[in-house]
Design goal:
six-stranded parallel beta sheet; about 15% strand
Length: about 400
């Protein structure tokens, strides 16, 4: 009996959220075809899913133009090593997950080598440079998108995109009652808990956490019964958070347990813009969003970003349901006042919770990773192009 040919897939994610989404996709693909092998760039979630890691996301998860410039030699070495791997291993296809600054360039290079490119989690063309879709058409064979409005945007340019829904709908699961989490932290059952979520990248945490901790001090003065937790991302050293607490003398403790249990235990959150806003929203926890970046990055973004909101939860809602504080507006005082309003106004709290429930319903039905996996396997089964020489 002829042996089944071994399929090798290059998969690349550049940051923590992409690592989680990619891991879910890999697991779903392996359920359909266990003989598909994955190698690429990722983190602990992808590694646990069975991906052979060539480079970790710690080396790619930089934020801002200046940070990227400083890391260009390393980023180029990783880029070149991936192309060398693709040639050497005669890979069957590549799955590129989000991280467009790196992955769109990689897509172009791989396509030039005759390799099929599947892109999972679209670049945010709806936020800036929608015209990039014309270039994406030339380098991406299959685009899998998480939001229904993204499919419509691609259709405007004559490109078919597959809407699979958001994998967070399946991923966001609570395994421990909030009361138990609070008790484990030494909090009473009726103590209001405010979560601080500064981000998953070192630079993000450095920019956001001091303001969050100062806001916590203001909020504690308004109600001595309040308690504050910092939700630690796997990519952030615990010592870094502990030093920030010590430096500001802020009333916060580090929570290093399952992230969704921690979010569920919050009564409200101060959340850095990103996927965390969707995770918090799916658990119907009111929040305030902030984001700070390098000034050069900010001003360039101001020139090109064309949507009125940066928080994904607001983008999906199509309106501002959560307050956003960006750059100079992201002060401890502004943040604290907005959180205080959530607690002091039952109408604000109730309206935000209702709006978050509506956003949750827009993120699609469960099974997003399985739907994406089915498309990936379909593409692999349809491969007809000859292997690289």
């Amino acid at each position: 009996m002829k042996e089944k040919p071994r399929k090798v897939i290059l998969i690349v994610a550049g940051e923590a959220s992409g690592d989680m989404r990619a891991a879910g996709l890999v697991k779903a693909v392996k359920k359909i075809d266990p003989d598909i092998h994955f190698t690429g760039v990722g983190g602990k979630h992808m590694s646990e899913a069975g991906v052979r890691i060539l480079a970790g996301i710690d080396w790619l998860g930089v934020v801002g133009i200046w940070d990227v410039i400083k890391h260009l030699p390393l980023i180029k070495r990783i880029f070149d090593s991936l192309l060398a791997f693709a040639r050497r291993e005669h890979i069957d296809a590549a799955i590129l997950v989000d991280y467009p600054g790196f992955n769109l360039r990689l897509a172009r290079a791989l396509k030039g080598m005759g390799i099929k490119v599947i892109y999972y989690i679209s670049p945010q063309v709806w936020a800036w440079k929608e015209g990039r879709i014309k270039a994406i058409q030339k380098t991406v064979d299959r685009m899998l998108v998480l939001f229904p409005f993204e499919k419509d945007i691609y259709a405007k340019y004559g490109m078919n995109a597959d809407y699979v829904g958001h994998p967070l709908v399946d991923e966001v699961k609570v395994t421990e009652p909030p009361s138990s989490v609070k008790a484990g932290l030494g909090f009473g059952p009726h103590m209001p808990v405010i979560g601080l979520m500064p981000g998953s990248r070192i630079k993000e945490v450095q920019r956001h956490l001091p303001f969050m901790l100062e806001a916590a001090k203001i909020l504690l003065a308004g109600d001595r019964n309040r308690r504050f937790i910092i939700l630690k991302a796997a990519t952030v050293p615990r010592e870094m958070l502990a030093m920030a607490i010590q430096k500001t003398n802020a009333p916060a403790v580090i929570y290093d347990g399952p992230a969704y249990n921690g979010i569920a235990a919050m009564d409200a959150g101060i959340v850095a813009s990103g996927t965390a806003t969707l995770e918090t929203g799916l658990l119907l926890r009111p929040m305030v969003i902030l984001y700070k970046t390098a000034w050069l990055t900010y001003w360039i973004a101001k020139l090109f970003v064309k949507i009125p909101y940066i928080g994904l939860i607001n983008v999906v809602a199509g309106k501002k349901i959560v307050e956003e504080f960006i750059q100079n507006d992201a002060t401890a005082q502004n943040i604290a006042m907005s959180v205080e309003k959530i607690f002091r106004s039952p109408n604000t709290y109730g309206q935000m919770t209702n709006d978050l429930a509506q956003v949750k319903s827009r993120l699609g039905a469960s099974g997003a990773s399985a739907r994406a996996a089915a498309i990936v396997v379909e593409e692999l089964n349809n491969l007809s192009a000859p292997k690289l020489p």
